[in-house]
Amino acid sequence: MHDPRVPRHRSLETVENFAGTFTALGQLAYDGAQVSANVIDLRTSRVLVSIDDRIVLPTASVGKILLLIEVSARLTAREFSGYGILDKTPRDAVGDSGVWQHLQAPALPVSDLATMVGATSDNLATNVLLRQVGLAAVRARTESLGLMRTALLDLVRDTRGPDDAPQLSVGSTAELAWLFGALARSEIVDPLTSQRVMGWLSLNSDLSMVASAFGLDPLSHRGVDHGTLLVNKTGSDVGVRSEAGALRGTRSSLAYAVSVQFDDDSLSKRLRVMDAMRTIGLDLLEYVH
């Protein structure tokens, strides 16, 4: 059981110490994990948490945000239609996250595929979209945004061979928190592009990590619930847990990113990581309310 937490009533000018966050991540680091976190107040642009936030760690599916930005920018520029139909092919086939692999539909519109990526981190939809826009274009877009330590490295694969990128994506939490803050302010490419990406990500059904502390319905949280509004993206792989998002409460709003790389050789180690991420979420929730 978790010990009762005493609310830290504060004014907006009070400097938060995020003691729970530092303690939780510090313990993981002491146990041998690599940890990184960054939290930014969106009202003041003040950095609230900075823990090894420049190092590059695997971020699993978090890097799919970069694909969604490229797709949204092309829709805004009318380089292709959101109603354009894309077929799935045998070379796109991949398992794990997503629902399209379980559906009979052989083809879906571009916008529907992006929606599936935002809602369920759909791997098959990701690969089909990547085949359409090209990994090189995603990389170019990423660089144009000034992101130097964050990248989508490859398509999604069931297994990674010696000639494949070792990770689906990597990133620094400083850049990922900045990216979510810029999306929340509608500053990525242009307002329409940013708002479309935030709309897709607002459907994300994975609230198992940092967002597990927010008390939201994983399947329905697009609107404000008890004064709380969340948009986030998560990434999970063996030994990797990562999350980035934007959180608004009744008093303030923030952007955050947390990544942990750990030795995933026992359930107890994995659960310690998940507990630490929830602890971070409790600190974030207290700050915005």
Automatic annotation (TrEMBL):
BP terms from Gene Ontology: beta-lactam antibiotic catabolic process; response to antibiotic
Pfam families cross-referenced by the UniProt entry: Beta-lactamase2
Domain Beta-lactamase class A catalytic as annotated: residue spans: 39-258
UniProt-recorded Gene Ontology molecular function terms: beta-lactamase activity
Statement: the UniProt record of this protein carries the keyword Zinc: no
Keywords: Hydrolase
Hydrolase found in the keyword field: yes
Record-linked InterPro entries: Beta-lactam/transpept-like, Beta-lactam_cat, Beta-lactam_class-A
Protein name listed in UniProt: Serine hydrolase
Organism lineage string: Bacteria, Bacillati, Actinomycetota, Actinomycetes, Micrococcales
